[in-house]
Amino acid sequence: MKKTVTTLQKQKIQGNKISMLTAYDYTTARLMDAAGVDALLVGDSLGMVMLGYEDTLQVTMDDMIHHSRAVRRGAKEALVVTDMPFLSYHVSVEEAVSNAGRLVKEGLAEAVKLEGGAAFSEVIRAITRAQIPVVAHLGLTPQSVNAFGGFKVQGKSLAAAEELISDAVAVEAAGAVAVVLEGIPAPLAAVITERLQIPTIGIGAGAGTDGQVLVYQDMLGLYEELQPKFVKRFAEAGQLFREAFVNYREEIQQGLFPTENHSYSLAPEVIAALKEKGDGYANRN
């Protein structure tokens, strides 16, 4: 059965933890979907892990639409949430609604995610009025990396913690269906989770949230440029990939691949006829 934002809400009420992973292509989405992952996030993190950018700020609407469509084709049951990239919802409310609509119409997203708290309440309300579910994102918001002075834990002081709680309450009141809490102290995330009626999904926010999300390249050991404290390696796929690529190259160089088992045959009489004709083919012109 296809999972929706209502499914996530029921999971919070029932105390069933929500599993979410980032996904950027059809093949990976298909595997995650088959594994029963509840939600797939087409994150603007694709700028770093798929496109090689230094941060997420260069990601465009076209990038997000392209990858979102691919993920949606592979997600038969998982909910697909797609990030709104930098400056796609900052200029005006009207532009924000239009871009959210593009992610749904062209990117086949089932919900959109945007970073920011109370300051973006009007944007969340407007997108929600357009019947598009919105997931908010608070704490360490990567699109604000320059303002934060880097990827730093947020909400450590009393004032900062109170502001995060206030932001969480504000985005819920504006109509957000869930909120991602990134890079904040675990006790603070637990307080926010208890305060809200909507689900919280943590990344570097401890075990007290209603669910967890990780960048799949991180949890598989495929992306080594950043190694946050909160990431657990569930497999060393990067090492496995490298070994496979090395073996492939070496077997080609040594003449071990391909073998007859990897080749198509031709009837002996056809081979003989071709040999009889010899260089005749070269003289046709």
Which geometry do the CA atoms define? Answer: elongated
What integer value in Å does the Rg equal? 24 Å
Q: Give me the count of strands.
A: 8
Poorly predicted runs are none
Q: How many H/I helices? A: 12
Mean pLDDT: 95
> SSE order, as H and E?
HEHEHHEHEHEHHEHEEHHH
**What is the SS-derived class?**
alpha/beta
Multimerization state: single chain
Strand content: 5-15%
Q: Distance between termini?
A: 62 Å
Helical fraction equals 40-55%
Which strand order does the major sheet show?
1-2-3-4-5-6-7-8
The biggest sheet, with number of strands, parallel, antiparallel or mixed sense and barrel status, is: 8 strands, parallel, barrel
How is this structure best described in words?
The chain has helices spanning 5-14, 26-34, 46-49, 61-74, 93-105, 121-129, 145-148, 158-174, 186-195, 216-219, 237-253, 268-277; strands at residues 18-22, 39-42, 79-83, 111-115, 134-139, 178-182, 200-203, 211-214. The protein is of the alpha/beta class and 285 residues long. The chain has an eight-stranded parallel barrel with strand order 1-2-3-4-5-6-7-8, surrounded by seven helices. It starts with a helix and ends in an 8-residue tail after the last helix.
Concise summary:
The protein has an eight-stranded parallel barrel, surrounded by seven helices. The chain is α/β, with parallel strands linked by helices and about 280 residues long.
Task: Give the topology.
Layout: H1 5-14, E1 18-22, H2 26-34, E2 39-42, H3 46-49, H4 61-74, E3 79-83, H5 93-105, E4 111-115, H6 121-129, E5 134-139, H7 145-148, H8 158-174, E6 178-182, H9 186-195, E7 200-203, E8 211-214, H10 216-219, H11 237-253, H12 268-277
Parallel strand pairs: 1-2, 1-8, 2-3, 3-4, 4-5, 5-6, 6-7, 7-8
Helix pairs in contact: 2-4, 5-6, 6-8, 8-9
